[in-house]
Amino acid sequence: MDRGSMRTLIVLALVGLGAQLVDGSLGMAYGVTSTTLLLAAGTNPAAASATVHLAEIGTTLASGASHWRFGNVDWRVVLKIGVPGAVGAFAGATFLSSLSTEIAAPVMSLILLALGVYVLTRFTFVGLSSSNLGKPLRKRFLSPLGLVAGFVDATGGGGWGPVGTPAILASGRMEPRKVIGSIDTSEFLVSVAASVGFLAGLGHEGIELTWVAGLLIGGVIAAPLAAWLVRHIPPRVLGSAVGGVIVVTNVRTLLNSDWLGASGAVSTVVYVLLYLAWAGALAYSVREYRRNAAEERELVRQAEAAEARSAAAQREEEPAVSN
């Protein structure tokens, strides 16, 4: 391997590591980040998506195993959303060369933006609602969601997480860490199906195995750390972080679309305002989490003190009873 190829491998490994760290912690962004890099390097959309999905076969397998090890996976959800997702991904990969997503992308971004705003505000100001927590997610909800998310993922080079994660989070029926773990694990099925579709339609044309290897190496290294992080980040803070990622990602898509075609100056102002709002939301979530945790610790302390006083009083009465 020459020096240039080695440098490319190292750069892509670092990109894969960073992308998987975010994806494994927040349930999205590996495909979007990696595909953006490949497109910027001049790869055609189909080959870029094929390269990313081939790498994701390994990264999602490692990520799923890590999330399972840390107890972040609901296997019923994995199957209910993953199998339809694989069908949608295969269809999207097969027809990518003849499909235009230029019109569909802004529409999808508007839907995702609305979901992102909902997730961000809900977790920031309300926290994790326990009213629906633990209720089963129905197949009639997960199957269409998986089909659409898989199709978007294959045709856009990413989208499984951005579509699936906010939709399930918004239901309030699963803890954020289990939403992220289940979405990451089910993405293995999507990646395999999309790769089969791309290989059937493109062969090896335009697919650089060195790029696949680089993205794969970085992703596999990051997978265990990301699964550990998602288990230890408070659900309220995690929900605010995920919501912010969804909002920023889809605002970027809309600003760059033909619908808006925003100038660089306008985009910069919008990004600055978004990041400031996101930082404020995260700070508020952290503060409220700490306040609620302190209140819970105080309640536990008071209960233990009351129990200790009751036990002491009972011990004092025992001699009197025996006399």
UniProtKB/TrEMBL annotation:
Claim: Cell membrane is one of the keywords in the record: yes
Coiled coil: 286-316
Keywords per UniProt: Cell membrane, Coiled coil, Membrane, Transmembrane, Transmembrane helix
Signal peptide segment: none
Membrane topology qualifier: Multi-pass membrane protein
Species this chain originates from: Streptomyces daqingensis
Compartment(s) where it occurs, according to its Swiss-Prot or TrEMBL record: Cell membrane; Membrane
Keyword Coiled coil among UniProt keywords: yes
Family: Belongs to the 4-toluene sulfonate uptake permease (TSUP) (TC 2.A.102) family.
Lineage top rank: taxon: Bacteria
UniProt protein name: Probable membrane transporter protein
Transmembrane segments: 77-96, 103-121, 141-164, 209-230, 237-255, 261-284
